[in-house]
Fold:
Amino acid sequence: MTDSTPRHILVVDDDNRVRTLLSWQLEAEGFAVQCAADGAEALDHIGRDRPDLVILDLSLPGVGGLDVLRSVRQHEPAGAMPLPVIILSGRSGETDRIVGLDFGADDYLIKPFSPGELAARVRSVLRRARPPAVQPDGSGGFGPGPASPGAGLRINEAAREVFARGRPVDLTAREYDLLAFLARHPRQVFTRAQLLRSVWDSEAAWQSEATVTEHVHRLRVKLEDDPARPRWLHTVRGVGYRMDA
Structure:
């Protein structure tokens, strides 16, 4: 870590052995770690201390992991960067993974996993969560601006704001990261594997390429007039995706 102040990680799991193991691993990596054994305790920590990242088990007693994640996303402070959340789950089904991502998780790790892999995921998510290094008024546009009649798509990277058809669009942190990356490279085609590396800082061996497909689908639903006939986010058959201005 290059910052002299250690990043604060909250580990939420009802298994004391898991909490202890992850605490040891993350503290050895230079992180400051707090733990919570259930969802209510986790929400108390988040509301009081605002950690830099949360590692959240789905199977919690009482207030479940998805309920914690939903509450976190619903109560994000105005203007704040979204709180990064990595989900832990013993369930490997694609449906569970998609539900977690739909609720706004930044990454999804299936048990059992190596503590070293988790530490690498934590570093990756924290890097992506840093504020963009652009000028305060920097923005990119596809079509007319947000105040124009029949407005197109506009992205303000300084504020992490997106407007489509003149209206603000509510995106998860990862949806925004994917859109902004493609917008910085108009008409350049990227494979799913390239997008996993560039946006998720991950690999197909760690994370399914279907994650990219699902995020592109959700972006089309939120941004396009007709998701089946996209104007901006195009599939290049047999290769991957590109964004057209």
Q: What stands out?
A: The first strand starts at residue 8 and ends at 12. Residues 115-128 form the longest helix (14 residues).
